Amino acid sequence: MKKLVIFDLDGTLLNTISDLGTACNHALRTMGYSAHPLSAYNYMVGNGVRKLVERAAPEVDEATLDDLLKYFREYYDAHCTDTTEPYPGVREMLEQLGERGVAVAVATNKYQAAAEKIIMQFFPDIPFVGILGQVEDRPTKPDPSIVFALLNQYPTPKSQVLLCGDSSVDIETARRACVESVGVSWGFRPISELRRAYADHIIGKPSEILTIVDGQRELERFL
Questions:
Q1: How far apart are alpha carbons 62 and 198 in whole angstroms?
Q2: pLDDT band for position 221 (50/70/90)?
Q3: Which pLDDT score, from 0 to 100, does residue 219 have?
Q4: How many angstroms separate the CA atoms of 105 and 150, rounded?
Q5: Number of H helices and number of E strands within the chain?
Q6: SS3 label, residue 163
Q7: Angle at the Cα of 202 (from 87 to 107), degrees rounded to 5?
Q8: CA 41 to CA 17: how far, in whole Å?
Q9: What is the CA angle 22-27-29, rounded to 5?
Q10: Coil, strand or helix: which one is 112?
């Protein structure tokens, strides 16, 4: 049985794509650049907001990128919960993990202040043992440092840890941290990406995490 489940945030616990894309489009328009369809942002997110803005405006210099990032954060800080919402079944899954005595944590490439604000807005009663976002002195996923930081906060044998996310970034993070991975199909990336990343499990609804936690589901890669 697993004792700690570490969740990605964007595309895993919460559908944030509209607010992220709208904030990025605001920054682009403010600087005189063309906006993107919101659907295009599914493939731009996942590596932190600086990389998001860089992908949205790939030809700009570093100074312009800094300005775009400033406008993005100003807007997103004020509007990060406008249309964001939990995926169906996520809250119930988190509550059931708690009832089982399983700890939950968040490891996200979203910057720390936004991660904390969003979690407190949508899951104020869920006792996360850690909410770790992007900070200056720690590399972003897929570097495993964020997982190691969580395990320092909440010591747990790696064999009793799951890392759940919606992209190859999360699956690679789990591999580098030597913990079991779960790819979720309801997020921003297709199942094919999760398969190519060799996710240990791929699930289609949040409740399936419970069967993995309980040890009732074998590693998919060996089936």
A1: 35
A2: very low
A3: 61
A4: 8
A5: 9, 8
A6: strand
A7: 60
A8: 7
A9: 90
A10: helix
Please tell me the pTM assigned to this model. Answer: 0.93
Q: 118-176, pLDDT tens digit by residue?
A: 999 999 999 999 999 999 999 999 999 999 999 999 999 999 999 999 999 999 999 99
In 3-state terms, what secondary structure has residue 57?
A: coil
Written as six digits, the tokens of 87 are: 């995926």
Nearest CA-CA partner of 210 in 127, 85, 122, 89: 89
CB-based burial label for 88 (10 Å; 0-12, 13-18, 19+): exposed
Catalytic positions: 8
- Conformation bin of residue 118: beta by default, left when phi > 0, alpha when psi is -120 to 50: alpha
- For residue 109, the surrounding DSSP H or E stretch is strand 103-111
* Strand, helix or coil for residue 111: strand
